[in-house]
Amino acid sequence: MAMIEVEDLHKNYGLVEALRGVSFKVDRGEVLGFLGPNGAGKTTCMKIITGFLAATKGTVRVDGMDVHEHGLEAKTRIGYLPENAPLYHEMRVIDYLAYAAEIRGIKKSRRSAKMNEVAASCNLKDVAGKQIGTLSKGFRQRVGLAQALIHDPEVLILDEPTAGLDPNQIVEIRELVRRLGRQRTIILSTHNLPEVLQTCDRMVIIHQGKLVADGTPSELEQSAAEDPPIVVKLKTDEDRAVVTKRLRGLSGVAKVEDRGVVDDLLTFSLNTGTTDDLRPMIAKEITAAGWTLYELKRDALDLEAIFRRLTQQI
Amino acid sequence: MRSTWVIAKREFRSFFDSPIAYVAITVFLIITGVLFFLADDFFAANEATLRPLFEWVPLIFVFYMPAISMRLLSEERRSGTFELLITMPIREHEVILGKYLAALGFLVVTLLLTLPYPIIVAAVGTPDWGPMIGGYFGLFLVGAVYLGVGLMTSAWTHNQIISFVLALLINGFFYFIDKLIGVVWAGTRDVFAYLSFDQHFQTISRGVIDTRNLVFYVSLSAASVLIASYSLRRRLWKG
Question: Which residue of A has its CA nearest to B15?
């Protein structure tokens, strides 16, 4: 059963459409990677899920509850770490966690046990007495995570938890997220692809406020592998339009994209409608036309390339 | 209400983590000290009263209170902690009331720090306690209104300076409204006198506690707190 249901979400900031109809579901216990270039609408979407902003149109349900209509109930089920972990810098870690526990309504008798638990799981024991403002960014992220966990929420929303951290800190946070993901439903936004592969069960990609992909990493790779584009580089005196037209005339070629002149070579990208390898046929045609072939390759797209293809400005 | 109290406690403590509070209190005590001992020739006048002090403090509060209130919400919105706070299971008015309580607590601390003045007065003479107690009560009410205004402007912007200036302008306008405009248009004098933040205080500080004055201050405080609360809900507009 879906723990988080996002349905046809729209959000306008004045004339700017930040979200233009985003829908997806996250199952109970699933870790979802939320990807997209900067400004794609990731943060806006997360702000709506956590009840900080209201959607212009569309609904979000957490554990079956509309976050707009039943905000307070939905909020008790969510732990949230906003971008850059905004915390009260003048407070000590231990005081801050006590404050978070109290405001979350954790009973006094259970408070210190709960604080110890999250401090242990986020490795904060050594810095408990320090002021948050004096901590490194990695530690601040962990304090942010600890406050998000203090009420043992079923859902965790993490907005770029590894942004701005050094490689060691990134590994630590990823491991922590993976460990937390065993019992919880997590949405984690990032623009780092390896992170998704290492920590997430499934990913959605949004671009310019719209969902452009939804699936497990291997599903996405597979769907891209079904129709890998063929890149052709050649030399000729003929006009590019003529070359484009002739290539398009080949049987099996669905689309020809003129990529311009790269290093003195005319470059084209061909999409085929079939799974057959058309390269021998294309090579013959080019030779027959009297053009000089420099390169002919079929790219099996990796995730990086899929991401770029899906999120290129069109 | 539980959340209100949690927020009030945290906020009250954080006042004393910020240098602004200490600077403001120090400046306040220096100015009132100068007024008390020097300005009206306290010792020469041979009168056991805090009257000169009570005349000036509402004007000092016009500046002092915005300096205290400016960071209440602006700072949280600037640093992003507001987002974390409001995504906890908490209502906007609980946040506002918590902050307001903390600010009122700070006002009480400020007033307590001026207690040496009445003690000196009592030591050197026989003061009339009615106006004295009335004066302190009135200062609390005036301060509470200024803080309400400051909380409201702090909810409007993530910039502390803008919050400070707006609160200063509003407080200043209502402080001077009877003194300037009221004088120009003699016909409207009573109206402006009624609207003045200061006029009601002058009545109370004579030791006369009238329901009308109480209603004036309490309803103004309530209105600004209510507006502040609604301002926080503006983020939920569907636009």
Answer: A90
